[in-house]
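Please review this one:
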Amino acid sequence: MPVLRFRASRLLEAVGDPSMDLAKLMSVLPKLKCEVSLLEDGETLELEIDRDRPDMFSLRGLAEAVRLYLGLSKPRRFTSSGVGIEVLVDPPRKRPFIAAAALEGAEIGSEEDLEELIQFQEKLHLSYGRRKRVAIGFHDLYKLPSRRIEYRYVSVKERFVPLHMDREMSIEEVLRSTEQGREYGSIARDGDMHPALISGGKIIAIPPVLNSDITRVEPGTKGLFIDVTGTDLRAVTEILAVIVYPFLLAGARLLSAKIIYPSSTIVTPDTSWRSVRIDRSLFEEWLGLEVPTEDELRKLLERMGLELATYSESGFEVNVPPHRIDVLHPVDVLEDVAMAIGYDEIGAEMVATYEVSRPSALTRLWEALRDLAIGLGYTEVNSLTLTSSKLLEALGIEEFARIENPLQQELDALKPVPLPSLMQVLAESQHRQHPVKVFEISECVTRDASSPTGYRNRVLMGLAVLDTVVKFEDIHADCFAILRSLGLEPASRRCSSAPRFAIEGRCAEIVVGERAVGMVCEIDPGILEALGIEYPVGYIELDVERILEVGGFGR
């Protein structure tokens, strides 16, 4: 959770209740899902606030939440005084969206005000994408060269004066030589181009990296221009609504921004409230309480900054302000009602009956196989179902599910057998003390003509041994030891169609009765050489689900 610090006296002053002292404040904050402690200086409050309540990341937003909870304030609606900013967008490919607003009378009166503003900005960044998804810029409204802004790509050779610098630098130099540039420069750069905000022909920001010094916010600033850029339109518009909220509480005058995209125009921020419908049955099922009377419910909702819109026998409708971006579902409203009532007031009810769960037969077999392999000296491997198609092809495995749009090129296939991950481990561990014995039990994706997709998940076990000398009879013995410990009577026969990774004539199919349950083989030296493995390898593969089917476990 984001951790914020405020001077206790400032928070008490913002709450504005003469009867409230520090002890009472610290008793109220946990009721709003805030973990609070007083630091050793006796004056600074440290608060852990749930990331789903970003409207409480600012001093005034937090104070208003306390005021509402105590009944000192009621939910307030804010509207724009009109369009005061125009933003012309030529969308940068890697960061195409922007929302903006202007606030007249948003005063930064002291260094402490500025520090709290920076804290507000950084905690929003921390909670909503570390500048990649959304990036927030604050500018002195009255230092803007023009209130007609452009948001577009510019060459990294373009020059501007970065924040807190006293000389011009190229964007390339900023990205290379400043702390912000090194940390965030790769997020939005696209070849030799980078997104920029331009006012009156001057660069005022290169989001998400750095603002220009010409619009620097400092003590004495009387108004703000705010830009939020990012990769998701909904995210940038929602965060803007959160940002303007505490300034509107303080009496700032909101001026909207007209955002002109190539094919559409929007106005930000969105100050409209939205409605959420809650059925009476859902309320009673989730909270275990009867729906309060209309007046009682209205008071409970107002304690959380919400409004009761309609009330009927079947349920009720709630109006939600734009800064409450955490309210996504009726259950979120029910949580607020529970907090307004007080969890300690709801009480607990013992569950009348309960049933102790029991692992499935497959799970019990899985655990038994794991214990047996460890008992034989094997070390367990846990790997992803994803693997590399190049590795599968190097092993001679041709039938596998390939991913069309992988996030990483080295993870572009689903493994059909455990062997690929075991071979990777052996390649990395081959120069350790011999023998190297590893195993894995995992879900693999195998070909199945009866499945609608042509594939199905199947639980397989793989065991591999690397040593200076690997004898077929030794790995064969390990395989039989495992199966006999399960109460089975295994037998072996020549593989009718040996896999390409096996040495010809060194592959045996393992059967129980007439059912094939696995195979044992030695890996082809040519494949080992291709994978950079210098020692012989033996491999056991068991079909865990088939073993379960033949009745050797879980009866």
About this structure: The chain has four domains: 3-70, 83-268, 274-346, 361-549.
